[in-house]
Structures are given as structure tokens and as C-alpha cells.
Design a protein that fits this description.
The chain is an alpha/beta fold and 239 residues long. The protein contains ten helices and ten strands. It has one domain: Rossmann fold. It has a six-stranded parallel beta sheet with strand order 2-5-1-8-9-10, with helices on both faces. A two-stranded parallel ribbon has the order 3-4. A two-stranded antiparallel ribbon has the order 6-7.
């Protein structure tokens, strides 16, 4: 499925800063004058909202400047569980075809589309039929940005994600280490974080960017540390 210009944001797992990366990409491109659509196939955990950050679809919608939260995702559930389980608990079937159709409708309304996955790459969105985050990424055929933690343990997780994406013939545009110490904070990157950045880049031959710790109101500023210009291509495939 050709999906126009955009990027697919996945993560090495849950809670690695994937939503912040996706929303920062959106906000950064909007700040540069582009019309951007955001899409997320499923949002769970509405019953357990974060006190600091909006829900993912709300965050992404606000970053676009024109979408409603309901436009970003076709499926929302209360429990903070895997999408397939949340759907089972609600007696709802997540339809892969609806995901693709909704994404296509949004992509037709914008210059770029940023799709954020759910959890890690192999999280099931549906069991019957079997359809995972990876399956969605393959159908959309967009370059992939992998969000990862900057600290201990991230090398193995990131290598597993990147290797699997490449084995499925998906282009990995970059790895983004999310939650990097900011220049204005009293904390400098640790020796482990600096080594992780260099090691991932060398072992995987991939661009490794960092996204500093930020807030919902500072996403566009945080995106200045991302190489958005290098992700803007003229071949209609990537940003």
C-alpha cells in the first residue's frame, strides 16, 4: 500500500517515549509550515490518564493544529492493556481494513502523515485475524523511526527492533533516543547514554538522534534536535 509522504514511529517497547517522539515530529513539521496529519491505530488506558501528559490521540491532535482527537484514532479503550485484549473486553473487533482506510483518508488531507504504533513492534492489534503493529507498518510501507530509551539495556532492544524491521524490507530512517538530558538541565548525558548512542549508530549503521526531555507545550522546540530536514524527501516515500 503506497501511503504518500510520512513516517511510521514505533518503539522498542512500552513507555520508551514513542508518543513524545511522534508528537514532536508532528509539531516540528507544523512549525515549519507544513500541514501534517497524525494517526494512531488504537489508544488504550483512557481509564488511567497521566497527570502530566494528555492521552496519545489528544497529544497528537493538538500537535497537528487541526485534527480532533477522534480523528487521530478509530479505536479507544479504557483499560491499560494490549489492544487485542482491550477489544476483547469491550466485545469489539479491530478491523485491519478500517485502520488502512482511515489512515488513507487522513493522508489525503495533508502533506505528511505521522503514524504512531502501539507499544512495541510485535504488539498484536488483532488476534482474529492476526494483525500486529509490524503488519500495519508493512502495509503502510513508510520509513520507520524507532523510539528507544537512552539508558542501560537499550542496545539489545534497539538492535532487535531494527533487525526485524530490515528483515521485513522496511526502511529504518533513524533511531531516536527519547528522554535525553536537556541542555538546560543540571544533568549531563551519562557515560552509558553517550556510549549507547555511539554504539547503536556504529553497530546498526543507522542515524541516531536524541530528543530531549520536554513538555506538551515545548514539542516544537524539542523537535529542533531532530534531523527533520534530512527526513524530507522528494521521492514521495519519506518525510
Amino acid at each position: 500500500m503506497a501511503s504518500g509522504r510520512g513516517v511510521f514511529v514505533t518503539g522498542t517497547g512500552t513507555g520508551v517515549g514513542k508518543s513524545v517522539v511522534a508528537a514532536s515530529i508532528v509539531a516540528g513539521l507544523v512549525a515549519r509550515g507544513h500541514r501534517v496529519a497524525a494517526f494512531k491505530p488504537v489508544v488504550t488506558g483512557l481509564d488511567e490518564p497521566d497527570e502530566t501528559w494528555p492521552m496519545d490521540h489528544e497529544l497528537l491532535a493538538a500537535a497537528t493544529g487541526w485534527q480532533a482527537a477522534s480523528d487521530v484514532t478509530p479505536y479507544t479503550f479504557g483499560p491499560a492493556v494490549s489492544p487485542h485484549l482491550a477489544a476483547q473486553m469491550a466485545n469489539v473487533s479491530i478491523d485491519p481494513n478500517r485502520l488502512l482506510e482511515d489512515f488513507g483518508e487522513l493522508a489525503a488531507q495533508a502533506e505528511f502523515t505521522v503514524c504512531e504504533g502501539v507499544g512495541g513492534l510485535l504488539v498484536p492489534l488483532s488476534i482474529d485475524p492476526p494483525f500486529s503493529v509490524l503488519d500495519l507498518a508493512k502495509r503502510l510501507a513508510l520509513p520507520v523511526v524507532v523510539a528507544a530509551r537512552p539508558g542501560l539495556g537499550t542496545i539489545s532492544d534497539t538492535r532487535l527492533a531494527v533487525d526485524r524491521l530490515r528483515s521485513e524490507a522496511l526502511e529504518v530512517a533513524a533511531v531516536v533516543l527519547s528522554g535525553w538530558p536537556s541542555n538546560t538541565s543540571s544533568d549531563d548525558p551519562s557515560a552509558v547514554e553517550l556510549s549507547n548512542r555511539e554504539t547503536i549508530s556504529r553497530l546498526l549503521n543507522v542515524e541516531v538522534a536524541v530528543l530531549e526531555r520536554t513538555s506538551p507545550d515545548e514539542l516544537a522546540n524539542a523537535a529542533e534536535s531532530l534531523p527533520l530536514a534530512s527526513w524530507i524527501g522528494d521521492d514521495g516515500r519519506g518525510l
